[in-house]
Amino acid sequence: DALYVLLEGEVEVLTSNEAGRDVRLAAHRPVAVIGEMAVLDGQARSADVRAIRRSRLLRITRDAAIAALESEPKALLKLLAEMSRRLRKANASLEDAQLLDLGGRLAQRLLEEAGDGASVTTTQTELARRIGASREKVNRKLHEWSDEGWISLGRAGIKLVHRDKLQAMIRETRSH
Predict the structure, then answer these.
(1) Strand order in the sheet with 119-120
(2) Which of 62, 77, 95, 134 is 20 to 30 A from 145, alpha carbon to alpha carbon?
């Protein structure tokens, strides 16, 4: 009955598989619109949202959102463009899940988590959950990359030393 605008913090969108294990679909940072599908089609929510960090959200009722979108066609077009962007990203994630091995998925996640920076503070347990692997396998792969000098492991997290090596590995895995 409402959509939300994420003003501060970070949230993840997830669903649960039949075994009750959470499957992460996406993560959002400010300023993001959340819950737009249910508001637009009036159906039940397709996923859950959980705060990863302390977050502040603005709640907009379905009636207010629909009225605003009807009176502002440019806002509706922006929302549709955002939904298209998310769908393309979801398609790419599905493709990655099919084409990339553990190393490829982990490299992709590290690069996404680091953004333009060089550090990732996400725990190995959380990285494993986000790529659908065990923490032990993630730990082994990270130590392998650390030994090769691609990354550096420390108390503050993971430092990406050679982003180009991670990117090349992803490209190579996709091409096979």
Answers:
(1) 119-120, 157-160, 151-154
(2) 95
